[in-house]
Write a structure and sequence with these properties.
Blueprint: H1 43-50, H2 64-90, H3 123-137, H4 139-153, H5 162-191, H6 199-230, H7 234-238, H8 267-283, H9 287-290, H10 327-330, E1 336-340, E2 345-349, H11 351-356, E3 360-364, E4 377-383, H12 384-390, E5 400-404, E6 413-416, H13 418-422, E7 427-432, E8 435-436, E9 446-448, E10 461-466
Helix pairs in contact: 2-3, 2-4, 2-6, 3-8, 4-5, 4-8, 5-6
Amino acid sequence: MDVPPNPPPEPSGPHPPAGPPPEQPPHRGAAFGRAPAARAAPPRLAGLVSRLPAGPWRSPLRGPWLTSVFGLVLLVGIPVLFVTGLLSYAAYNPNLSPINDKTPGKGLLGFYLFAWPTRPYWLYRVDQGVHVTLGIVLVPVLLAKLWSVVPKLFALPPVRSPAHALDRLSLLLLVGGGLFEFVTGALNVQLDYVFPGSFYPLHFYGAWVFFGAVAAHVALRLPRTVRALRSRDFRAELRTSTSRTVPEPADDSGLVSTHPARPTMSRRGALGMVGLGSVALFVVTAGQSIGGPLRRTALLAPHGRDPGSGPNGFPINKTAALAHIRAQDVGEGWRLVVHGDGNGRRVSLTLADVRALAQHGSALPIACVEGWSTDNQHWEGVRLADLAALVGHHADPPGVFVESAQLSGSFRAVALRANQVRDARSLLALRVNGAELSHDHGYPARVIVPDAPGVMNTKWVHRLTFGATTFGADT
């Protein structure tokens, strides 16, 4: 949308098309019987400006109105991203145990954390699906917003006063924080782990910095944004063709070019291009969360659109090979060890023993932090509450510490709350959709809990400790 200067130099100002002068898009001031007043520069300053190089930022589309339209979309979307992200973090129950807490030292930033519920069972699936899908859909809007304000990012001199320095710092945090959050989020969805530090604290702290910068920016710029949005009629802009597109009136925003080039696109075209980009990203992303036939449209799904067929034909995050699961850990010698912490009780069960216990069913999805989720799968196994009763916790069973045969890696062990153990749908599952679990889905036994992130539904389970009060990071 920017047109660089080409020799010979063009005269300053827009080039009207041949024929009658272009019609100025309706201005809201005209509705009150007055035309918008352009702020004229002093003659001496105008002469000086006319002799300056045209510079690289010559698009006639830039101006407070277009920037404000993009900003309004982000003003709606970013708070939704922030809230759904905080809820997603709370779903890990990080205050329950250090083993769950991938963001240590959060201090006051964890003020909102609460005991994550098990009802409705689809809450985490919807929350994380909205978080990831909306984040990807907003990428074209974020880039368009940055394009619209790029002249201000390179304005000279960079600092004019202490107040201007603070304004520049807030802009740096806003732009840098936004790019950091969107880039790290997209990379985590598509490429799994690619960061020098843990994704969880990086994204968590980055979100607070970014949202703080957004809040400060809105507080400082909201009046100007409202004036800009009222300065032009949105429907009239959507009817304005490229040939009739003219620059916004000059003002002190620094966004309107003093030497605008010919328009190669209307504002209607710019908005349409950004909107089409967002719609396209929605189409190739949302299916991984919505499921059903739309899963085949999820071209950006990180774990593929075709997870296979049969009872175990639904997505997984980590295969048995990737988790370095050894045959001896899940073969004939596998044992489930159940502890009752504090009462000294302990039982060791073979797979046949576990199968001999009362079996129950649950219809629950799996939802992952990367935004993908499954439809409801039909699980069969032993209720966690029944396993707690084997070691003396008959009434009101406590929380449980779950350990996997996986030797290393994040979330090889997790702590579940008492409300999760007591929910009748929480199982140590042995079967899914009428068939034995596959090795990649956690054979011989895995946890399935309603409304929990996928990594909390531990696979290849070999030890359960009910009532444990302390869990070390290396337990």
